[in-house]
Each structure stands twice: as structure tokens, then as C-alpha cells.
Amino acid sequence: MEKRKGESVKMLTVDKIHKTFNPGTINEKIALADLSVTLQEGDFVTVIGGNGAGKSTLLNCVAGVYTIDQGSILIGDKDVTKLSEHRRASVIGRVFQDPMKGTAANMGIEENLALANRRGKFRGLRWGITNKEREAYKEYLSHLELGLENRLNDKVGLLSGGQRQALTLLMATIKRPQLLLLDEHTAALDPKTADKVLKISDKLIKENNLTALMVTHNMRNAIEYGNRLIMMHEGRIILDIKGEEKQKLTVESLLKRFGKVSGKEFSDDRSLLS
């Protein structure tokens, strides 16, 4: 994908996608309805919305966990609409809500990093970890400021939830993916740890100029982080706020705008109480 000087590059293009669960049954649920969104290279977009708004479904459709009923999805200039989750994994980094996902608990920290670094390569861990790789992993880990660079051989299962989630973030970004998906990745952490992991996320995204989509229930975090905020409701994007307009946002003004656009009152307690 060539980039001319001064030209922005589209890293994600979601065009008029539909997703319905259990179609034709009593449990039919329209999760996404004619949804379109484009992310430019370096965009850090936070996604907010009430329960059932379609936030995680959108991420799962982009990742290939769910197939879409209609529309198309491009990552960079590649149409991935019909590609499996496995085949999209080479261009997507992903961090889940559960700190137990994304790492191998019975393996050491450096082994986990080596697996992430060699993703897509045939050799895996068969040839062992070189001293050069080990030094690089220490350097990566030092940026987290959690002291993990001195614990390379410790089993990941011994780490706290926050340490593990920070390591997962590093593993997801080590290959500089075209797209980083963060699905409520701090929801299972205590507030202080969640704040630290969010700061690490922000730092990694900025330092590597990554394009990221972060689903959150926390309105304050959605406002504080990223250069753009999208709000979803009933499977659609109803607000898309960026730049200076986003910088001036408050929880109160966002709630007011939600009510005006949707004609309803926002009723997700988790978002309001966070």
C-alpha cells in the first residue's frame, strides 16, 4: 500500500455491514444495521454505547469471529470480508476483556513474547531464543515500567491481572499490526490497575503510530483517550466526534447529545457510574 506525501491512508473501511443473530426465529436480533466507518492510519477511536448497542459485535466482525450478512470490510487495501479469523490475525492485534486470554500461562514471559514475535513464521520456538531477541524483549518490557524485564523466565500464570494485560498489549503490538482491537480490555481490572493499563495502551499506540479501535463502557475513558469517539445505539453509529470537538466533550454533554440524536435516555449504569 503506497502512501504519497501528505496523504492519509485508510487502515479500516467498514462499508454498510449487517449482522443478524438467529434470523427467522423468535430470538432474532439485529446486531448491526447498515453500519459504515472508516479509520485513517494513526486513528485511536474509542467506541461507547449501552448494552446491546453492537460495540463488541462490530469488533468481532472486523476480527472475523462473526461473518457478516451484508457489506464489506477492508483492512488497509485488502478485502478481508470472506477471510477467516485465523487469516486476519496476521494484520490484527487483539486484547480481550479477560486477562487470561492472549497469553500462555504455563510458559515464561520471554517465551510468550517470542511466540508473538514469530507469529506466522514456521520456526515457532523450535530454535530457542537468541541473546539478541532476549535483549530486545527486555527493552520492550522496560517501557511498561512494571519491572517485568527482570522476570523473563517467570511463568505468566504468576503475574497479576494488570501485569498480564500489559504483557498481552505488548504481545499484540510487537509486530506493529495494521489494526489493534481493544475489547473492554480493562473491565476486569480494579480502577487503579485499569488506569495504568490504559496509559500503557495509549503510549504503545502513539509510539508505534498504530490504528486502534477501543470498546469501553467507561464514558470518561472514552472521552479522555483517543482522537475520535463513536457512540453506538441499536447497531448503528449515532455520534462520531473528533478533533477539537472531542477535546471539549464532557460526560454531561455527551449524554445530552445521545438523548438528542436517539430520542432516548442513556440507561447503562456501568457507563454512568465508572
Examine the coordinates and then state which fold CATH places here, giving the name of the CATH topology of the largest domain: Rossmann fold
Percentage of residues in strands: 15-25%
Provide mean pLDDT, rounded. Answer: 88
CATH superfamily of the largest domain: P-loop containing nucleotide triphosphate hydrolases
How far from one another are the termini?
40 Å
Based on Cα principal axes, name the global outline.
globular
Structural class comes to: alpha/beta
Relative helix content:
25-40%
Strand order of the largest sheet: 6-7-8-3-9-10
- Uncertain runs are none
Rounded to an integer in angstroms, the radius of gyration calculated over CA atoms is 19 Å
Give the SSE order as H and E letters: EEEHEEHEHHHEHEHEEHHH
SSE diagram, text form:
Layout: E1 10-21, E2 29-40, E3 44-49, H1 55-63, E4 70-75, E5 78-79, H2 85-88, E6 92-95, H3 109-117, H4 131-142, H5 161-173, E7 179-183, H6 191-207, E8 212-215, H7 219-224, E9 228-233, E10 236-242, H8 243-247, H9 251-262, H10 269-273
Parallel strand pairs: 3-8, 3-9, 6-7, 7-8
Antiparallel strand pairs: 1-2, 1-4, 4-5, 9-10
